[in-house]
């Protein structure tokens, strides 16, 4: 497999965690979203992913984009350890939380949107994350065990940790979100989350390395 990734991309981080958890080795090709006006806009990368976003994963003779689609494929082809619970209700909760982050928070504060916001980009990002986290905190109070849904790491957790990293980057006050904070702390102690962390990637700038 070949993963096209950017160290700071939260969507790329979700996929790196999944690959690490499932023990799938891969080659990483960095795509710098800022350098050269954004390497994702090159003709070469557009041919690979017409949406001009990371991540993209070449695997088993196909190229996949969209982090949750990639994670679902990895789940179906490498079922252990499972990232979707067997119980249909818990599985639905995992998908709900993953969608809440992947559709309802992250795209609103993504690089492409922030470019449009000009000087207001920090305020915009904080507002998007705060309103999303207010809802997420409430949901997690009903679903969480040790992690987002019960005591097994799931696709929901793969979305949570990168989104908390975004929140910290945009200086969001995490005080009102004790459940999110507690789960994130537990996740960052897991090896798969450590090795896939933005501070430990081949393309991480020296000043941001762990």
Q: What does this protein structure show overall?
A:
Its EC number is 2.5.1.18, 5.2.1.2. GO terms for molecular function: glutathione transferase activity; maleylacetoacetate isomerase activity. This protein is α+β, with helices and mostly antiparallel strands and 210 residues long. The protein is built from nine helices and four strands; from the N terminus they run βαβαββααααααα. It has a four-stranded mixed β-sheet with strand order 2-1-3-4, with helices on one face. Strand 3 and strand 4 (62-65) form a beta hairpin. The longest helix is centred in the middle third of the chain and has 23 residues, at 121-143. The protein is globular and about 45 Å long.
Shape: globular
Mean pLDDT: 97
CATH architecture of the largest domain: Up-down Bundle
The structural class is alpha+beta
Rounded radius of gyration (Å): 16 Å
Count, helices: 9
The parts where pLDDT drops under 50 for at least 5 residues are none
Task: Please bin the fraction of helical residues.
Answer: 40-55%
The CATH first-level class of the largest domain comes to: Mainly Alpha
Number of strands: 4
Which tags fit this structure?
single chain, 210 residues, alpha+beta, Glutaredoxin, Glutathione S-transferase Yfyf (Class Pi), Chain A, domain 2, 2 domains, 9 helices
Secondary-structure map with pairings?
Layout: E1 2-5, H1 10-21, E2 27-30, H2 43-48, E3 56-59, E4 62-65, H3 67-77, H4 88-104, H5 111-117, H6 121-143, H7 155-169, H8 178-187, H9 191-195
